[in-house]
Amino acid sequence: GPGQAAMYAGLQELGVANGEDLKETLTNCTEPLKAIEQFQTENGVLLPSLQSALPFLDLHGTPRLEFHQSVFDELREKLLERVSAIALEGKVEERYKKLEDLLEKSFSLVKMPSIQPVVMCVMKHLPKVPEKKLKLVMADKDLYKACAVEVKRQIWQDNQALFGDEVSPLLKQYILEKENILFSNDISVLHNFFSPSPKTRRQGEVVQKLTQMIGKNVKLYDMVLQFLRTLFLRTRNVHYCTLRAELLMSLHDLEISEICTVDPCHKFTWCLDACIREKFVDNKRARELQGFLDGVKKGQEQVLGDLSMILCDPFAINTLALSTIRHLQDLVGQDTLPRESPDLLLLLRMLSLGQGAWDMIDSQVFKEPKMEAELITKFLPMLMSFVVDDQTFNVDQKLPSEEKGPIPYPSTIPEAFTKFLQENRIACEIGLYYILHITKQRNKNAFLRLLPALVETFSDLAFSDIFLHLLTGNLTLLGDEFSLEEFCTSLFDGFFLTACSRKENVHRHVLRLLLHLHHKVAPAKLESLQKALEPTKQSGEAVKELYNQLTEKLELRKPSPAEATETPSMELPLPTVPTPASR
Protein backbone atom coordinates (compact mmCIF):
# COMPACT_ATOMS: atom_id res chain seq x y z
CA GLY A 1 0.00 0.00 0.00
CA PRO A 2 0.97 3.69 -0.01
CA GLY A 3 2.35 3.38 3.56
CA GLN A 4 4.71 0.65 2.36
CA ALA A 5 5.79 2.78 -0.58
CA ALA A 6 6.73 5.61 1.79
CA MET A 7 8.67 3.24 3.99
CA TYR A 8 10.99 2.33 1.15
CA ALA A 9 10.96 5.70 -0.59
CA GLY A 10 14.21 6.51 -2.31
CA LEU A 11 15.73 3.00 -2.37
CA GLN A 12 15.50 2.68 -6.15
CA GLU A 13 17.48 5.87 -6.70
CA LEU A 14 20.32 4.18 -4.85
CA GLY A 15 20.03 1.02 -6.96
CA VAL A 16 18.68 -0.99 -4.03
CA ALA A 17 15.83 -3.36 -4.85
CA ASN A 18 12.54 -2.85 -3.06
CA GLY A 19 9.13 -4.54 -2.86
CA GLU A 20 8.13 -3.27 -6.29
CA ASP A 21 11.17 -4.98 -7.84
CA LEU A 22 10.33 -8.26 -6.15
CA LYS A 23 6.75 -8.05 -7.41
CA GLU A 24 8.05 -7.46 -10.94
CA THR A 25 10.51 -10.34 -10.69
CA LEU A 26 7.78 -12.72 -9.52
CA THR A 27 5.29 -11.59 -12.17
CA ASN A 28 7.75 -12.26 -15.00
CA CYS A 29 9.30 -15.58 -13.93
CA THR A 30 8.57 -19.28 -14.41
CA GLU A 31 9.88 -20.68 -11.10
CA PRO A 32 8.81 -18.35 -8.29
CA LEU A 33 10.60 -20.23 -5.46
CA LYS A 34 13.94 -20.12 -7.26
CA ALA A 35 13.39 -16.45 -8.02
CA ILE A 36 12.71 -15.67 -4.35
CA GLU A 37 15.85 -17.53 -3.30
CA GLN A 38 17.89 -15.61 -5.84
CA PHE A 39 16.36 -12.26 -4.68
CA GLN A 40 17.25 -13.17 -1.10
CA THR A 41 20.82 -13.99 -2.04
CA GLU A 42 21.27 -10.81 -4.08
CA ASN A 43 19.66 -8.51 -1.52
CA GLY A 44 20.42 -10.22 1.79
CA VAL A 45 23.21 -9.45 4.18
CA LEU A 46 26.38 -10.16 2.23
CA LEU A 47 28.44 -11.93 4.86
CA PRO A 48 29.82 -15.41 3.89
CA SER A 49 29.61 -16.60 7.50
CA LEU A 50 25.87 -15.87 7.53
CA GLN A 51 25.04 -18.10 4.57
CA SER A 52 25.15 -21.23 6.75
CA ALA A 53 23.61 -19.58 9.81
CA LEU A 54 20.40 -18.39 8.17
CA PRO A 55 18.88 -21.88 7.67
CA PHE A 56 19.68 -22.50 11.36
CA LEU A 57 17.59 -19.46 12.33
CA ASP A 58 14.83 -20.72 10.02
CA LEU A 59 14.75 -24.00 12.02
CA HIS A 60 14.15 -21.96 15.19
CA GLY A 61 11.19 -20.26 13.54
CA THR A 62 12.87 -16.82 13.60
CA PRO A 63 11.41 -14.91 10.66
CA ARG A 64 13.99 -13.47 8.27
CA LEU A 65 12.42 -10.02 8.76
CA GLU A 66 13.07 -10.13 12.50
CA PHE A 67 16.66 -11.15 11.90
CA HIS A 68 17.25 -8.49 9.28
CA GLN A 69 15.58 -5.92 11.52
CA SER A 70 17.89 -6.68 14.45
CA VAL A 71 20.97 -6.58 12.19
CA PHE A 72 19.69 -3.31 10.77
CA ASP A 73 19.08 -1.70 14.20
CA GLU A 74 22.56 -2.74 15.29
CA LEU A 75 24.09 -1.24 12.14
CA ARG A 76 22.09 1.97 12.50
CA GLU A 77 23.34 2.47 16.06
CA LYS A 78 26.92 1.92 14.85
CA LEU A 79 26.36 4.37 11.99
CA LEU A 80 24.92 7.06 14.30
CA GLU A 81 27.94 6.68 16.59
CA ARG A 82 30.24 6.89 13.59
CA VAL A 83 28.57 10.07 12.28
CA SER A 84 28.96 11.75 15.67
CA ALA A 85 32.60 10.66 15.74
CA ILE A 86 33.33 11.95 12.21
CA ALA A 87 31.91 15.32 13.30
CA LEU A 88 34.69 15.61 15.88
CA GLU A 89 37.77 14.14 14.20
CA GLY A 90 40.36 15.25 11.66
CA LYS A 91 40.67 18.62 9.96
CA VAL A 92 37.56 20.77 9.89
CA GLU A 93 37.11 20.88 6.12
CA GLU A 94 37.79 17.13 5.79
CA ARG A 95 35.24 16.07 8.38
CA TYR A 96 32.55 18.28 6.89
CA LYS A 97 33.39 16.99 3.41
CA LYS A 98 32.80 13.41 4.67
CA LEU A 99 29.49 14.40 6.25
CA GLU A 100 28.36 16.25 3.11
CA ASP A 101 29.12 13.19 0.99
CA LEU A 102 27.19 11.03 3.42
CA LEU A 103 24.25 13.44 3.30
CA GLU A 104 24.33 13.41 -0.51
CA LYS A 105 24.14 9.59 -0.50
CA SER A 106 21.54 9.19 2.20
CA PHE A 107 19.20 12.16 1.74
CA SER A 108 16.97 10.39 -0.76
CA LEU A 109 16.09 7.92 2.05
CA VAL A 110 15.07 10.64 4.49
CA LYS A 111 11.42 9.53 4.30
CA MET A 112 12.21 5.98 5.41
CA PRO A 113 11.45 5.88 9.12
CA SER A 114 14.25 3.41 9.71
CA ILE A 115 16.90 5.54 7.97
CA GLN A 116 15.59 8.99 8.88
CA PRO A 117 17.46 9.25 12.22
CA VAL A 118 20.77 8.75 10.41
CA VAL A 119 20.03 11.49 7.85
CA MET A 120 18.91 13.84 10.63
CA CYS A 121 22.04 13.08 12.59
CA VAL A 122 24.26 13.94 9.61
CA MET A 123 22.45 17.25 9.11
CA LYS A 124 22.63 18.10 12.81
CA HIS A 125 26.43 17.89 12.69
CA LEU A 126 26.79 20.06 9.59
CA PRO A 127 27.31 23.74 10.41
CA LYS A 128 26.02 24.57 6.93
CA VAL A 129 23.49 22.20 5.43
CA PRO A 130 23.26 22.77 1.65
CA GLU A 131 20.53 25.30 0.83
CA LYS A 132 18.68 22.86 -1.44
CA LYS A 133 18.31 20.29 1.35
CA LEU A 134 17.10 22.95 3.81
CA LYS A 135 14.44 24.00 1.30
CA LEU A 136 13.25 20.39 0.94
CA VAL A 137 13.06 20.01 4.71
CA MET A 138 11.20 23.29 5.08
CA ALA A 139 8.64 22.31 2.48
CA ASP A 140 7.73 19.11 4.34
CA LYS A 141 5.93 19.55 7.68
CA ASP A 142 6.92 16.14 9.04
CA LEU A 143 10.58 16.47 8.09
CA TYR A 144 10.72 19.97 9.58
CA LYS A 145 9.23 18.62 12.80
CA ALA A 146 11.72 15.76 12.95
CA CYS A 147 14.70 18.09 12.51
CA ALA A 148 17.20 18.79 15.27
CA VAL A 149 17.17 22.35 16.59
CA GLU A 150 20.67 22.82 15.09
CA VAL A 151 19.15 22.38 11.61
CA LYS A 152 16.07 24.47 12.41
CA ARG A 153 18.33 27.38 13.41
CA GLN A 154 19.83 27.31 9.90
CA ILE A 155 16.32 27.43 8.44
CA TRP A 156 15.08 30.14 10.83
CA GLN A 157 17.94 32.56 10.34
CA ASP A 158 16.80 33.22 6.77
CA ASN A 159 13.07 32.88 7.43
CA GLN A 160 11.98 35.47 9.95
CA ALA A 161 8.28 34.71 9.47
CA LEU A 162 8.72 31.01 10.20
CA PHE A 163 10.85 31.82 13.26
CA GLY A 164 8.20 34.29 14.37
CA ASP A 165 5.56 31.56 14.21
CA GLU A 166 7.69 29.41 16.53
CA VAL A 167 8.45 32.22 19.00
CA SER A 168 5.04 33.88 19.11
CA PRO A 169 3.19 31.28 21.25
CA LEU A 170 6.10 31.34 23.74
CA LEU A 171 5.86 35.11 24.13
CA LYS A 172 2.09 34.87 24.66
CA GLN A 173 2.65 32.21 27.31
CA TYR A 174 5.25 34.39 29.03
CA ILE A 175 2.92 37.40 29.33
CA LEU A 176 0.12 35.15 30.56
CA GLU A 177 2.36 33.67 33.28
CA LYS A 178 3.25 37.18 34.49
CA GLU A 179 -0.39 38.22 34.62
CA ASN A 180 -1.35 35.08 36.51
CA ILE A 181 1.17 35.94 39.22
CA LEU A 182 -0.12 39.52 39.51
CA PHE A 183 -3.71 38.33 39.87
CA SER A 184 -2.94 35.26 41.97
CA ASN A 185 -5.40 34.51 44.78
CA ASP A 186 -2.56 34.17 47.26
CA ILE A 187 -2.08 37.60 48.75
CA SER A 188 0.97 37.93 50.92
CA VAL A 189 3.47 40.55 51.88
CA LEU A 190 6.25 37.95 51.96
CA HIS A 191 5.68 36.28 48.61
CA ASN A 192 4.86 38.72 45.89
CA PHE A 193 5.56 39.35 42.21
CA PHE A 194 9.09 40.57 42.99
CA SER A 195 10.08 37.75 45.37
CA PRO A 196 11.76 35.27 42.96
CA SER A 197 15.46 35.95 42.41
CA PRO A 198 16.65 36.78 38.88
CA LYS A 199 18.38 33.38 38.68
CA THR A 200 15.18 31.56 39.58
CA ARG A 201 13.18 33.55 37.04
CA ARG A 202 15.61 32.66 34.26
CA GLN A 203 14.91 28.97 34.87
CA GLY A 204 11.35 29.59 33.63
CA GLU A 205 10.16 27.44 30.75
CA VAL A 206 9.86 30.23 28.16
CA VAL A 207 13.30 31.74 28.81
CA GLN A 208 14.88 28.27 28.69
CA LYS A 209 13.13 27.36 25.42
CA LEU A 210 14.11 30.63 23.74
CA THR A 211 17.70 30.22 24.94
CA GLN A 212 17.73 26.73 23.43
CA MET A 213 16.26 27.96 20.12
CA ILE A 214 18.83 30.74 19.82
CA GLY A 215 21.87 28.62 20.69
CA LYS A 216 24.91 30.71 19.76
CA ASN A 217 23.22 32.30 16.77
CA VAL A 218 23.52 36.09 16.93
CA LYS A 219 21.11 36.53 14.02
CA LEU A 220 18.34 34.66 15.87
CA TYR A 221 19.07 36.57 19.08
CA ASP A 222 18.69 39.84 17.17
CA MET A 223 15.41 38.63 15.70
CA VAL A 224 14.00 37.83 19.15
CA LEU A 225 15.05 41.28 20.42
CA GLN A 226 13.35 42.82 17.39
CA PHE A 227 10.14 40.90 18.17
CA LEU A 228 10.30 42.09 21.80
CA ARG A 229 10.81 45.73 20.78
CA THR A 230 7.95 45.59 18.30
CA LEU A 231 5.58 43.99 20.81
CA PHE A 232 6.58 46.46 23.51
CA LEU A 233 5.80 49.33 21.13
CA ARG A 234 2.51 47.80 20.04
CA THR A 235 1.23 46.93 23.53
CA ARG A 236 3.24 49.08 26.00
CA ASN A 237 3.46 45.87 28.05
CA VAL A 238 6.55 46.18 30.27
CA HIS A 239 6.88 42.41 30.77
CA TYR A 240 8.56 42.29 27.34
CA CYS A 241 11.33 44.43 28.87
CA THR A 242 11.77 41.84 31.62
CA LEU A 243 12.12 39.09 29.04
CA ARG A 244 14.71 41.17 27.14
CA ALA A 245 16.90 41.25 30.27
CA GLU A 246 16.22 37.65 31.31
CA LEU A 247 17.14 36.30 27.88
CA LEU A 248 20.47 38.14 27.85
CA MET A 249 21.28 36.98 31.38
CA SER A 250 20.29 33.40 30.56
CA LEU A 251 22.86 33.41 27.72
CA HIS A 252 25.29 34.99 30.19
CA ASP A 253 24.72 32.10 32.64
CA LEU A 254 25.62 29.64 29.86
CA GLU A 255 28.70 31.73 28.97
CA ILE A 256 27.62 32.14 25.33
CA SER A 257 30.31 34.71 24.57
CA GLU A 258 29.38 34.74 20.86
CA ILE A 259 26.26 36.70 21.83
CA CYS A 260 27.17 38.38 25.13
CA THR A 261 30.22 40.12 23.69
CA VAL A 262 28.22 41.67 20.83
CA ASP A 263 25.27 42.88 22.95
CA PRO A 264 26.35 46.37 24.05
CA CYS A 265 24.03 46.11 27.09
CA HIS A 266 25.69 42.99 28.49
CA LYS A 267 27.86 44.49 31.23
CA PHE A 268 25.25 47.06 32.27
CA THR A 269 22.58 44.36 32.52
CA TRP A 270 24.92 42.08 34.45
CA CYS A 271 25.64 44.82 37.00
CA LEU A 272 21.95 45.79 37.28
CA ASP A 273 21.06 42.12 37.69
CA ALA A 274 23.22 41.98 40.82
CA CYS A 275 21.38 45.05 42.20
CA ILE A 276 17.99 43.43 41.47
CA ARG A 277 19.15 40.33 43.35
CA GLU A 278 19.90 42.50 46.41
CA LYS A 279 16.83 44.74 45.79
CA PHE A 280 19.21 47.67 46.35
CA VAL A 281 21.72 49.71 44.36
CA ASP A 282 24.82 50.04 46.53
CA ASN A 283 27.43 52.76 46.04
CA LYS A 284 29.99 50.59 44.27
CA ARG A 285 27.50 49.32 41.69
CA ALA A 286 26.02 52.80 41.34
CA ARG A 287 29.45 54.05 40.20
CA GLU A 288 29.72 51.19 37.76
CA LEU A 289 26.26 51.79 36.25
CA GLN A 290 27.03 55.49 35.98
CA GLY A 291 30.26 54.66 34.16
CA PHE A 292 28.29 52.75 31.50
CA LEU A 293 25.81 55.60 31.02
CA ASP A 294 28.53 58.24 30.83
CA GLY A 295 30.50 56.03 28.46
CA VAL A 296 27.93 56.08 25.65
CA LYS A 297 29.95 57.54 22.78
CA LYS A 298 28.90 59.95 20.06
CA GLY A 299 27.42 58.00 17.19
CA GLN A 300 26.45 55.06 19.44
CA GLU A 301 23.47 56.74 21.11
CA GLN A 302 21.19 54.03 19.80
CA VAL A 303 22.38 51.82 22.64
CA LEU A 304 20.33 54.10 24.93
CA GLY A 305 17.20 52.57 23.40
CA ASP A 306 18.32 49.15 24.55
CA LEU A 307 19.50 50.36 27.96
CA SER A 308 16.19 52.14 28.51
CA MET A 309 14.33 48.92 27.76
CA ILE A 310 16.51 47.06 30.30
CA LEU A 311 15.75 49.80 32.86
CA CYS A 312 12.02 49.70 32.06
CA ASP A 313 11.85 46.10 33.32
CA PRO A 314 9.52 46.28 36.38
CA PHE A 315 12.16 44.39 38.42
CA ALA A 316 14.66 47.16 37.64
CA ILE A 317 12.13 49.94 38.38
CA ASN A 318 11.22 48.21 41.66
CA THR A 319 14.88 48.07 42.70
CA LEU A 320 15.54 51.71 41.73
CA ALA A 321 12.39 52.95 43.49
CA LEU A 322 13.06 50.99 46.71
CA SER A 323 16.63 52.34 46.72
CA THR A 324 15.31 55.89 46.22
CA ILE A 325 13.00 55.62 49.24
CA ARG A 326 15.87 54.29 51.36
CA HIS A 327 18.12 57.13 50.25
CA LEU A 328 15.48 59.74 51.13
CA GLN A 329 15.20 58.36 54.65
CA ASP A 330 18.98 58.45 55.03
CA LEU A 331 19.04 62.07 53.84
CA VAL A 332 16.48 63.04 56.50
CA GLY A 333 18.84 61.59 59.12
CA GLN A 334 21.84 63.39 57.64
CA ASP A 335 20.01 66.69 57.17
CA THR A 336 21.07 66.70 53.52
CA LEU A 337 19.08 67.98 50.53
CA PRO A 338 18.33 65.65 47.58
CA ARG A 339 20.30 67.82 45.15
CA GLU A 340 23.42 67.29 47.28
CA SER A 341 23.32 63.50 46.87
CA PRO A 342 24.99 62.18 43.68
CA ASP A 343 23.75 58.64 44.43
CA LEU A 344 20.15 59.79 44.58
CA LEU A 345 20.55 61.79 41.36
CA LEU A 346 21.88 58.70 39.59
CA LEU A 347 18.87 56.66 40.72
CA LEU A 348 16.56 59.33 39.32
CA ARG A 349 18.52 59.42 36.09
CA MET A 350 18.07 55.65 35.64
CA LEU A 351 14.41 55.81 36.63
CA SER A 352 13.73 58.44 34.01
CA LEU A 353 15.67 56.53 31.37
CA GLY A 354 13.59 53.43 32.14
CA GLN A 355 10.30 55.31 32.28
CA GLY A 356 11.14 57.00 28.97
CA ALA A 357 11.83 53.73 27.14
CA TRP A 358 8.60 53.60 25.17
CA ASP A 359 8.87 57.20 23.95
CA MET A 360 12.50 56.77 23.00
CA ILE A 361 11.98 53.59 20.99
CA ASP A 362 8.83 55.02 19.44
CA SER A 363 10.37 58.35 18.41
CA GLN A 364 13.79 56.84 17.61
CA VAL A 365 15.33 59.93 19.24
CA PHE A 366 18.13 58.50 21.35
CA LYS A 367 19.01 60.93 24.09
CA GLU A 368 18.51 60.84 27.83
CA PRO A 369 15.26 62.47 29.01
CA LYS A 370 15.65 65.86 30.69
CA MET A 371 15.23 65.69 34.44
CA GLU A 372 12.80 68.28 35.80
CA ALA A 373 14.50 70.45 38.40
CA GLU A 374 11.32 70.69 40.47
CA LEU A 375 11.36 66.95 41.03
CA ILE A 376 14.62 67.39 42.92
CA THR A 377 14.07 70.83 44.50
CA LYS A 378 10.35 70.51 45.42
CA PHE A 379 8.90 67.02 45.23
CA LEU A 380 11.56 64.95 47.00
CA PRO A 381 11.95 67.50 49.86
CA MET A 382 8.15 67.24 50.26
CA LEU A 383 8.41 63.45 50.68
CA MET A 384 11.17 64.04 53.21
CA SER A 385 8.87 66.38 55.13
CA PHE A 386 6.33 63.52 55.36
CA VAL A 387 9.04 61.35 56.91
CA VAL A 388 9.75 64.17 59.38
CA ASP A 389 6.01 64.50 60.18
CA ASP A 390 5.96 60.83 61.16
CA GLN A 391 9.04 61.15 63.34
CA THR A 392 7.69 64.27 65.09
CA PHE A 393 4.30 62.63 65.67
CA ASN A 394 5.93 59.50 67.12
CA VAL A 395 8.08 61.58 69.49
CA ASP A 396 5.04 63.66 70.55
CA GLN A 397 3.10 60.51 71.36
CA LYS A 398 5.83 59.48 73.79
CA LEU A 399 6.11 62.86 75.55
CA PRO A 400 4.04 63.39 78.72
CA SER A 401 1.11 65.48 77.56
CA GLU A 402 0.77 68.83 79.33
CA GLU A 403 -2.62 70.58 79.34
CA LYS A 404 -2.38 70.99 75.54
CA GLY A 405 -3.83 67.49 74.93
CA PRO A 406 -2.67 65.03 72.22
CA ILE A 407 -1.31 66.52 69.01
CA PRO A 408 -3.37 65.31 66.03
CA TYR A 409 -1.70 63.69 63.03
CA PRO A 410 -1.50 66.11 60.07
CA SER A 411 -4.47 65.19 57.88
CA THR A 412 -4.09 67.48 54.87
CA ILE A 413 -1.62 67.04 52.05
CA PRO A 414 0.06 69.85 50.11
CA GLU A 415 -1.79 70.49 46.86
CA ALA A 416 1.57 70.36 45.11
CA PHE A 417 1.95 66.68 46.07
CA THR A 418 -1.29 65.75 44.32
CA LYS A 419 -0.30 67.83 41.29
CA PHE A 420 3.11 66.13 41.04
CA LEU A 421 1.47 62.70 41.11
CA GLN A 422 -0.82 63.74 38.29
CA GLU A 423 1.71 65.44 36.04
CA ASN A 424 5.14 63.95 36.59
CA ARG A 425 5.79 60.33 35.81
CA ILE A 426 8.90 59.88 37.99
CA ALA A 427 7.33 61.76 40.91
CA CYS A 428 4.29 59.52 40.60
CA GLU A 429 6.35 56.32 40.58
CA ILE A 430 8.35 57.42 43.65
CA GLY A 431 5.20 58.67 45.40
CA LEU A 432 3.51 55.30 44.90
CA TYR A 433 6.53 53.48 46.30
CA TYR A 434 6.50 55.81 49.30
CA ILE A 435 2.87 54.86 49.92
CA LEU A 436 3.77 51.17 49.65
CA HIS A 437 6.57 51.83 52.14
CA ILE A 438 4.33 53.42 54.80
CA THR A 439 1.71 50.69 54.33
CA LYS A 440 4.35 48.06 54.91
CA GLN A 441 5.32 49.90 58.10
CA ARG A 442 1.65 49.61 59.19
CA ASN A 443 1.53 53.41 59.33
CA LYS A 444 -2.24 53.84 59.05
CA ASN A 445 -2.20 57.62 59.68
CA ALA A 446 0.23 58.34 56.85
CA PHE A 447 -1.60 55.93 54.54
CA LEU A 448 -4.99 57.60 55.06
CA ARG A 449 -3.43 61.03 54.70
CA LEU A 450 -1.88 60.30 51.29
CA LEU A 451 -4.52 57.95 49.86
CA PRO A 452 -6.72 60.71 48.34
CA ALA A 453 -3.79 61.70 46.09
CA LEU A 454 -4.03 58.31 44.36
CA VAL A 455 -7.42 58.80 42.74
CA GLU A 456 -5.93 60.72 39.82
CA THR A 457 -2.34 59.87 38.94
CA PHE A 458 -0.08 60.11 35.92
CA SER A 459 -1.55 57.76 33.25
CA ASP A 460 -3.51 56.03 36.05
CA LEU A 461 -0.37 54.45 37.53
CA ALA A 462 -2.10 53.95 40.89
CA PHE A 463 -4.51 51.58 39.14
CA SER A 464 -1.80 49.58 37.38
CA ASP A 465 -1.58 45.86 38.15
CA ILE A 466 1.89 45.91 39.65
CA PHE A 467 1.05 48.69 42.12
CA LEU A 468 -2.28 47.14 43.10
CA HIS A 469 -0.66 43.71 43.48
CA LEU A 470 1.89 45.18 45.92
CA LEU A 471 -0.65 47.38 47.70
CA THR A 472 -3.09 44.52 48.34
CA GLY A 473 -0.19 42.47 49.71
CA ASN A 474 0.90 45.25 52.08
CA LEU A 475 -2.67 45.97 53.19
CA THR A 476 -2.83 42.51 54.76
CA LEU A 477 -0.56 44.02 57.45
CA LEU A 478 -3.32 46.53 58.28
CA GLY A 479 -5.90 43.74 58.49
CA ASP A 480 -7.32 44.85 61.84
CA GLU A 481 -8.17 48.31 60.49
CA PHE A 482 -10.73 46.75 58.12
CA SER A 483 -13.23 46.49 60.98
CA LEU A 484 -13.33 50.31 61.16
CA GLU A 485 -15.94 52.11 59.10
CA GLU A 486 -13.72 55.16 58.52
CA PHE A 487 -10.81 53.12 57.19
CA CYS A 488 -12.99 51.07 54.82
CA THR A 489 -14.79 54.14 53.51
CA SER A 490 -11.48 55.87 52.72
CA LEU A 491 -9.99 52.78 51.09
CA PHE A 492 -12.97 51.37 49.19
CA ASP A 493 -15.31 54.30 48.50
CA GLY A 494 -12.53 56.87 48.38
CA PHE A 495 -10.10 54.90 46.22
CA PHE A 496 -10.90 51.46 44.77
CA LEU A 497 -14.55 52.02 43.84
CA THR A 498 -13.76 55.23 41.99
CA ALA A 499 -12.20 53.10 39.24
CA CYS A 500 -13.90 49.71 39.48
CA SER A 501 -16.55 50.34 36.86
CA ARG A 502 -14.13 51.73 34.25
CA LYS A 503 -11.21 49.43 34.99
CA GLU A 504 -11.77 45.69 35.03
CA ASN A 505 -8.35 45.02 36.59
CA VAL A 506 -9.18 47.19 39.64
CA HIS A 507 -12.42 45.25 40.09
CA ARG A 508 -10.37 42.05 40.14
CA HIS A 509 -7.85 43.34 42.67
CA VAL A 510 -10.57 44.52 45.10
CA LEU A 511 -12.24 41.10 44.90
CA ARG A 512 -8.87 39.41 45.52
CA LEU A 513 -8.39 41.59 48.60
CA LEU A 514 -11.86 40.85 49.98
CA LEU A 515 -11.50 37.13 49.38
CA HIS A 516 -8.49 37.36 51.65
CA LEU A 517 -9.76 39.79 54.30
CA HIS A 518 -13.58 39.53 54.24
CA HIS A 519 -13.65 38.12 57.79
CA LYS A 520 -12.05 41.34 59.07
CA VAL A 521 -14.61 43.68 57.48
CA ALA A 522 -17.63 44.91 59.49
CA PRO A 523 -20.78 43.04 58.30
CA ALA A 524 -22.71 46.15 57.25
CA LYS A 525 -19.77 47.42 55.19
CA LEU A 526 -19.28 44.00 53.65
CA GLU A 527 -22.89 43.93 52.53
CA SER A 528 -22.66 47.30 50.80
CA LEU A 529 -19.36 46.27 49.16
CA GLN A 530 -20.93 43.07 47.91
CA LYS A 531 -23.64 45.12 46.19
CA ALA A 532 -21.16 47.63 44.78
CA LEU A 533 -18.89 44.92 43.37
CA GLU A 534 -21.55 42.87 41.63
CA PRO A 535 -20.41 42.08 38.08
CA THR A 536 -22.20 43.78 35.19
CA LYS A 537 -23.04 42.36 31.76
CA GLN A 538 -19.73 43.77 30.49
CA SER A 539 -17.66 42.07 33.21
CA GLY A 540 -15.17 39.44 32.10
CA GLU A 541 -15.00 35.82 33.22
CA ALA A 542 -12.29 36.48 35.82
CA VAL A 543 -14.42 39.06 37.68
CA LYS A 544 -17.49 36.79 37.67
CA GLU A 545 -15.45 33.86 38.90
CA LEU A 546 -13.92 35.89 41.78
CA TYR A 547 -17.29 37.35 42.71
CA ASN A 548 -18.82 33.85 42.87
CA GLN A 549 -15.96 32.68 45.09
CA LEU A 550 -16.53 35.64 47.41
CA THR A 551 -20.31 35.05 47.55
CA GLU A 552 -19.73 31.40 48.46
CA LYS A 553 -17.38 32.37 51.28
CA LEU A 554 -19.85 34.91 52.64
CA GLU A 555 -22.71 32.41 52.50
CA LEU A 556 -20.67 30.12 54.74
CA ARG A 557 -20.27 32.94 57.28
CA LYS A 558 -23.97 33.72 57.66
CA PRO A 559 -25.72 32.01 60.56
CA SER A 560 -28.75 29.95 59.51
CA PRO A 561 -32.12 31.68 60.15
CA ALA A 562 -32.96 29.20 62.96
CA GLU A 563 -29.79 30.05 64.88
CA ALA A 564 -30.36 33.74 64.41
CA THR A 565 -33.80 33.72 66.05
CA GLU A 566 -32.81 31.49 68.97
CA THR A 567 -30.16 33.87 70.34
CA PRO A 568 -31.54 35.28 73.63
CA SER A 569 -31.65 39.06 73.35
CA MET A 570 -29.74 39.56 76.62
CA GLU A 571 -26.50 38.07 75.31
CA LEU A 572 -24.23 40.28 73.28
CA PRO A 573 -23.39 38.66 69.94
CA LEU A 574 -19.78 37.50 69.91
CA PRO A 575 -17.56 39.00 67.23
CA THR A 576 -16.95 36.47 64.48
CA VAL A 577 -13.58 34.89 65.06
CA PRO A 578 -11.93 33.89 61.78
CA THR A 579 -11.36 30.17 61.63
CA PRO A 580 -8.29 29.13 59.65
CA ALA A 581 -10.60 27.65 57.01
CA SER A 582 -12.40 30.91 56.32
CA ARG A 583 -9.28 32.80 55.31
UniProtKB/TrEMBL annotation:
It holds the Pfam family COBRA1. Residues 555-583 are annotated as: Disordered. One of its GO terms (biological process) is negative regulation of transcription elongation by RNA polymerase II. One of its GO terms (cellular component) is NELF complex. It comes from the Eukaryota. This is NELFB factor. It comes from Aramus guarauna. The lineage of its organism: Eukaryota, Metazoa, Chordata, Craniata, Vertebrata.
